Amino acid sequence: MNILSRSALVAAFGALCVSPVMAAAKSQPAAKPQASRAAPADVAVKEVELVHSLGADKGEQLQKLVDRYNATNPAVKVVVRERRWNDGALPDMMILGERDLPGFLTGAPRYRPLHQVMKEAGERFETLKAPAMMTPTPLDSANRLVALPVALSTPVLFYNKQVFRDAGVDPDNAPKTWQALQKTLGQLVANGATCPYTTAQPAWILVENMSAWHNEPVVSEGKKASLAINGMLEVKHVAMLSSWVKARYLHLFGRDDEATERFAKGECAVLTAPSAAFPTLQRQAGFDVGVATLPYHEDYYGAPQNTLADGPAMWIAAGKKPAEYKAIARFVNFWLSSESQVEWQRTAGYLPLNRAGLLASESRLLATDLAAIRVGVQQLGHKPVTSVSRASSYPQRAAVRRIIEEELESVWDDRKPSKLALDTAVARSRALD
Question: Is the pLDDT of residue 337 over 80?
Answer without folding.
Answer: yes
